[in-house]
Amino acid sequence: MKKKLVLESGEVFHGKGFGADQDIEGEVVFNTGMTGYQELISDPSYCGQIVCMTYPLIGNYGINRDDYESIEPAIKGLIVKEVCDFPSNFRTQMDLDEFFQKRNLSGISGIDTRRLTRVLRNSGVVKGKIVAEDADENSIIESLKATDFPTDQVAQVSTKKAYASPGRGLKVVLVDYGSKSGILRELTQRDCDVTVVSQDTTAEEILLINPDGVMLSNGPGDPEDVKGSIEMIQNTLGKVPIFGICLGHQLIALASGAKTFKLKFGHRGGNHPVLDLKKNKVAITSQNHGYAVDQESLEKTDLEETHIALNDRTNEGLKHKIHPCFSVQYHPEASPGPEDANYLFDQFIEMMEEFKSKKVLN
Questions:
Q1: Which terminal residue of the chain has fewer beta carbons within 10 Å of its beta carbon, N or C?
Q2: Which residues are listed for L-glutamine binding in this entry (predicted)?
Q3: Distance between CA atoms of 205 and 42, rounded to whole angstroms?
Q4: Binding site annotation covers 288?
Q5: Is 247 annotated as a binding residue?
């Protein structure tokens, strides 16, 4: 299938389609990871996006049953230089093309992904559409410019009904904004009794569960679109320890009076260096976000900056000065990516235990 990628900025890239034969459109972003494409494809934070992989060969170890981050992929499509037709790995169950066909996903290969990445770095992320080779480019460009993509991505990927992952340890409410299964895995490995709730759950409903702590998950889109959760966090702060990841981190900032802004081309990949300002130690982190916390807006809040990105000096971590609450912009559950930062889950456990012991003494 001869296909082409048309960007709203006017650039056109010609290639070959794989997966389902259909036209798709979305926000075009790039990811610098060398591995982890299965986790990426199944990461709900990519809802509505077409992802360009900068590494030239994708699919070389196939698709297996163990590396999913969600049951239903939310990604719109994938752009690669070369898709591997004959993967080699003892866990392989199918190749990337077969998986895309079964999941009704579409991709395009044969693209100069490094050139496309330079376009996105220079102009910022843009809307794009993968279409048949003979489609009219001018009408597609005009259509993309006039299109406003949905702002309800979190509602699309969040669980609709609360469910439990039982354990014998501390009781945690995980607010699902598009949570990766890696977060639940890290909590259950620490024997937490986890209740996963929808993104529109109120503070009253959460506190009725009587948790020892609240985890705010990652998720897609603009944090300012998730207005109900800002109020929920404000009414939960101080009553129970809170740990936020990625979108959860941004929502904590908004709930505390700070601001967020859209990055030019975002942070997406498994190789982003982050500096812990207190320990003066660098961790290589896995990241996937298009928005960041405005550092200047932190000055009039009760939040202090704990981490920064070394690539562009943007905010990567916060701690509340009064209440037991902290957050990071990157992904300590580490799928896909390194495991340098999964100690933060232990830090959350310690915070819950300390808060619980103080309640008992009081």
A1: C
A2: 45, 219, 221, 247, 250, 288, 290-291
A3: 29
A4: yes
A5: yes
197: domain CATH number is 3.40.50.880
Q: Is 329 labelled a binding residue?
A: no
The residue annotated as part of the active site, out of 27, 246, 316, 325, is 246
Rounded to two decimals, the pTM is 0.96
The answer to whether the annotation marks 182 as part of a ligand binding site is: no
- Whether 350 is catalytic is no
> Is residue 291 annotated as involved in ligand binding?
yes
Catalytic residue among 8, 25, 316, 333: 333
CA separation for the pair 113, 52 (Å, rounded): 7
- Per the annotation, the verdict on 354 as an active-site residue is no
Helix 247-255 with 227-234: angle, nearest 10 deg: 60
8 A C-beta contact, residue 223 and residue 250: yes
| Two tokens, residue 169 | 């340890």
DSSP state at residue 74: -
Looking at the fold, whether 77 and 13 belong to one and the same domain comes out as yes
**Pairing state between β 77-79 and 106-109:** parallel
pLDDT in tens, 132-187: 999 999 999 999 999 988 899 999 999 999 999 999 999 999 999 999 999 999 99
At 107, is the secondary structure helix, strand, or coil?
A: strand
Residue 362 has pLDDT above 70, yes or no: no
Residue 249 annotated as catalytic: no
Q: What is the DSSP string of 180-224?
A: -HHHHHHHHHTT-EEEEE-TT--HHHHHHT--SEEEE---SS-GG
Residue 342, Cβ density class (10 Å: 0-12 exposed, 13-18 middle, ≥19 buried): middle
Q: In the predicted model, is pLDDT for residue 18 greater than 70?
A: yes
- The one catalytic residue in 267, 272, 320, 331 is 331
d(CA 280, CA 301): 23
**Number of independent structural domains in the chain:** 2
